[in-house]
Amino acid sequence: MLLKITLIQASLAIGPAIAASVSCPADLPFSCSNTTAVEDLCCFNAPGGDVLLTVFWDTAPSTGPSDSWTIHGLWPDNCDGSYEQYCDQKRQYTNISAILQEKALCTLKTMQTYWKDYTGDDESFWEHEFGKHGTCMSTLNPECYDNYQPTEEVADYFTRAVSLFKTLPTYDWLAAAGIVPSSTQTYTLAAIQGALTAHHGHNAIIRCSGSTLNELWYHFQVKGSVQSGTFKAVDPVGSGSTCPSSGIKYLPKYAAPTTTTTTTTTASSTGTAISVPTGTPGALAGKGYVKVQPDGFMISTGNWYRASGTPATYTAASNSDGETFTLKTSKGPCQVLADASLSCAADFTPSDFGYNGTYITYNGAATFYAASTPSDQDKGVVFTTEQVVSLEMYWQPLL
Ligand SMILES: *[C@@H]1O[C@H](CO)[C@@H](O)[C@H](O)[C@H]1NC(C)=O
Ligand SMILES: *[C@@H]1O[C@H](CO)[C@@H](O)[C@H](O)[C@H]1NC(C)=O
Ligand SMILES: *[C@@H]1O[C@H](CO)[C@@H](O)[C@H](O)[C@H]1NC(C)=O
After folding, report:
1. Residue 309: its pLDDT value, please?
2. How far apart are CA 205 and CA 117, in angstroms?
3. pLDDT in the model for residue 13
4. Domain limits, the chain
5. CB under 8 Å to 236, separation ≥6 — which residues?
6. Ligand 2 closest atom vs CA 101
7. Residue 232 has what pLDDT?
């Protein structure tokens, strides 16, 4: 476990190694603890003064190191547990990696290990977190910066999230109490809460999918700005834990697929027999998943992903010939590139695909290829020219 910081208050008092946008008076109350209105919202996070650092334990598919939780986000909740979202349409940035590459390289490097999207699309995940939550932190507003340079606050948001995450070595805290990932052992909610509270000083919100532990929400209040103020752990407000009181599974990451049992609560699971939907040959149109035979599905980059999870939504648009169609994802149009690999990205020229009633085709052929079968977490590059592994792609329309 790389992240071991025990002196929480000391490390936070120092603050992240970034220029403070404003120097805030020392006598301000902590957010959500004021008894009268505080005027300067550049030094006082409001209304989102209940700041949550949320972390994931992803096992289906697994993300990040097998001995560390990963970051979900840093969220400004209102003091009553409600929250604002998407507070600034002008700051829905689509270049978080590029911004951090320039302004906060260390933060970016940490995020590449510890802030992972379960479909492999970290950039989109980071865009979502900043656009939805980061824009609602009053102390990160552009007017809080002297000589504001566009996107300056992005580095502050992610650097603070990462620095706070480093003070929360969840895996170690649980392990110290004998709570370790296991495919057979289960734990009680009280034991998990006790292990966390012993270190955090306050309860955390403990969340499960069914009876499988998968997320924690740590609550804080801030004195001063989010970017350079002091964080203090507090009791949660708002929605409560979602786990059963006992029988909680804390599954190992990257377990061999054969040891994973299919749960009835998940709609998609690998390893079940595939029944490929059939339809009328011709152009596909509308939204759907592109599933792969023998298994897995296509993600937004146009790569093959075999672990369980939610496939990317593809949009098919019929060409005027009524026979062929184009595909695009949140990344952009999907194109077969000069090296015969399939990829979806902004500014790509969409290629024409066909549908033979069962499978998606390219130049009339329903067989696509990969250099190897991707293992869990790997993204397989799909080619239209012959390689070692053959695959077909089929369309599962979304209503
Ligand atoms: C705390 O300060 C915020 C921001 O000025 C204000 O909206 C809120 O009403 C204040 N709370 C109290 C209890 O005065
Ligand atoms: C990121 O995008 C913003 C706005 O869209 C732009 O102002 C900024 O220059 C871009 N930064 C980088 C590093 O590409
Ligand atoms: C579609 O292509 C596959 C693979 O070549 C083939 O097995 C199948 O019969 C074709 N379906 C139709 C309806 O032509």
Report:
1. 80
2. 21
3. 37
4. 50-249, 262-397
5. 202, 203, 204, 205, 217, 219
6. 13
7. 98
* Beta bridge mates, 53: 74, 218
CA of residue 222 to ligand 1 center, whole Å: 14
d(CA 284, CA 125): 28
Tell me what pLDDT residue 9 has: 37
pLDDT on residue 256: 67
Closest residue by Cα to atom 1, ligand 1, is 37
pLDDT of the residue at 21: 47
For ligand 2, say whether the CB of 150 is within 6 Å of any of its atoms: yes
Q: Which two tokens stand for residue 375?
A: 């293992």
Is 358 near ligand 3, meaning CB less than 6 Å away? yes
Within the chain, which residues score under 70 in pLDDT? Answer: 1-22, 256-274
332-336 and 325-329 as β-strands: parallel, antiparallel, unpaired? antiparallel
Q: Is the pTM of this model over 0.70?
A: no
SS3 state at 310: coil
Separation CA 6–CA 173 (nearest Å): 11
What dotted CATH number matches 50-249?
3.90.730.10
Architecture of domain 262-397: Trefoil (2.80)
The CA distances from residue 352 to 159, 282, 384, in Å, are: 42, 12, 13
Alpha carbon nearest to ligand 3 atom 14, residue: 356
**Known catalytic residue at 72:** yes
Written as six digits, the tokens of 395 are 């369309």
Q: Please list the helix, strand and coil fractions of the chain in percent, rounded to the nearest 5, in that order.
A: 20, 25, 55
Q: What is the pLDDT of residue 23?
A: 83
